[in-house]
Specification:
By secondary structure, this protein is an alpha+beta fold. The chain folds into two domains: 3-130 and 314-346, Aminopeptidase; 134-311, Aminopeptidase. Helix content is 40%, strand content 24%. It is built from twelve helices and 15 strands. The chain has helices spanning 6-15, 25-32, 78-94, 111-117, 144-150, 153-162, 176-189, 196-207, 252-266, 282-288, 297-303, 323-346, and strands at 3-4, 36-42, 46-54, 63-68, 72-73, 97-103, 124-125, 134-139, 167-171, 212-219, 222-232, 235-243, 271-273, 309-312, 317-320. Strands 1, 2, 3, 4, 5, 6, 7 and 15 form an eight-stranded mixed β-sheet that branches. A seven-stranded mixed β-sheet has the order 9-10-11-12-13-8-14. A hairpin with a 2-residue loop joins strand 11 (222-232) and strand 12 (235-243). Helix 2 packs antiparallel against helix 8 (196-207).
Length: 347
């Protein structure tokens, strides 16, 4: 299976525009600045950008391999897909990968997921996930009145209120306001954030193709909330957001999401992905959202009001290229998560 270059990969994406944002060449270029090396592979049935990351020097050149929200299925040819996996695994072994992790973009209850799952062979469910498997997908069908009608009453009211609160939303190439807000948000809500360079480079790379919008809501010139909206094919993505504790009664986050939905529609999107809610069934989400605040529960409380559908990808799968070291990595991950949970419970 031939490797192709980034220019050829861009052509592949252009003919398959509804692939995930995380399979674009711009995403690969972004990750290449932060320790990952992208390689693009393609045969007649499938294609993927696979990211390799070197482990610390003590690991003697070993790597891990990761296919984010891929591969692209070009043709429903089981034998061709299986050949693709074989060639990809061979590449991973040549790169001394301990394991290959794949997180496909298909929804778990779809016929596309059933087909791809049937080709996975010796892959196994991963011991952890990198991207959040569950999200809320907002339909942009119909008019803006239709969007509002699908929302819950409180969210609808807050959007209308935000439009009366003297807020201004601007789209800014510079991420200074975003950085200021996300650092405040991370400190307040106790989560880690990327560096300023990461967010600025993300904005710069996707801005080349007019696929990113850095939206900032301000009151009297003071930034109150910001989000990065990405456009890929027919889907908009809300990957990063931040807000200040000031002037919350003006509902700047609601106005930003409403503006993002409008921009998505203007660019031909049919859906808007809110990217990341707790990995629980819809029934558990609704039963517990007003009781829990750990993990992604706070953001679910906010996102659920916009009238979208809870969706889950088909999951995360690993192929152990070095089984003994893979088992060690899985055991270490279990220990790390248990320790993290114990620390959180002790606070």
């Amino acid at each position: 299976m031939p490797e192709i270059n980034a220019i050829e990969w861009k052509s592949t994406i252009e003919t398959n525009p509804d692939c995930s944002l995380l399979q674009t060449a711009a995403w690969g270029e972004l990750k290449s600045s932060f320790g990952w090396s992208p390689i693009y592979l393609k045969n007649e049935a499938a294609a993927a950008m696979v990211l390799f990351r070197k482990l610390p020097k003590i690991a003697l050149g070993m790597t891990i391999a990761y296919v984010p929200r891929g591969p692209l299925v070009l043709r429903q040819d089981a034998a061709g897909i299986e050949d693709f996996w074989s060639e990809l695994i061979q590449l991973c072994r040549s790169k001394k990968a301990v394991f290959l992790r794949v997180e496909p973009d298909q929804w778990e209850d779809s016929t596309e997921a059933d087909f791809l799952r049937s080709t996975l062979g010796e892959f196994m469910p991963a011991f952890s996930t990198i991207q959040p498997p569950r999200t809320i997908l907002i339909s942009l069908s119909g008019s803006q009145d239709d969007w509002l009608a699908r929302m819950n009453q409180k969210t609808r009211y807050n959007i209308r209120l935000s439009q009366k609160k003297e807020l201004e939303v601007s789209e800014e190439p510079d991420v200074s306001a975003f950085i200021q807000l996300i650092e405040e948000t991370g400190s307040r809500d106790n989560f880690s954030v990327h560096s300023r360079n990461y967010y600025q480079l993300t904005s710069d790379l996707f801005r080349k193709d007019q696929k990113v919008f850095n939206l900032v809501a301000k009151y009297q010139g003071q930034p109150l909330a910001a989000l990065m909206l990405f456009i890929q094919g027919k889907r908009g993505y809300y990957l990063y957001g931040a807000s200040s504790a000031a002037e919350r009664n003006r509902m700047p986050n609601h106005l930003l999401q409403w503006t993002a939905m409008q921009i998505c529609a203007e660019h031909g999107c049919t859906e808007y992905d809110l990217w990341g809610v707790p990995d629980e069934s819809p029934e558990n989400l609704e039963a517990q959202f007003d009781q829990r605040s750990d993990g992604l529960w706070n953001v679910y409380r906010f996102k659920r009001g916009f009238g979208g559908e809870v969706k889950r990808t088909m999951g995360s799968f690993d192929y152990p290229c070095m089984p003994a070291l893979y088992r060690l990595a899985a055991a270490f991950d279990r220990w790390r998560r248990k320790r993290s949970q114990s620390a959180a419970e002790g606070q």
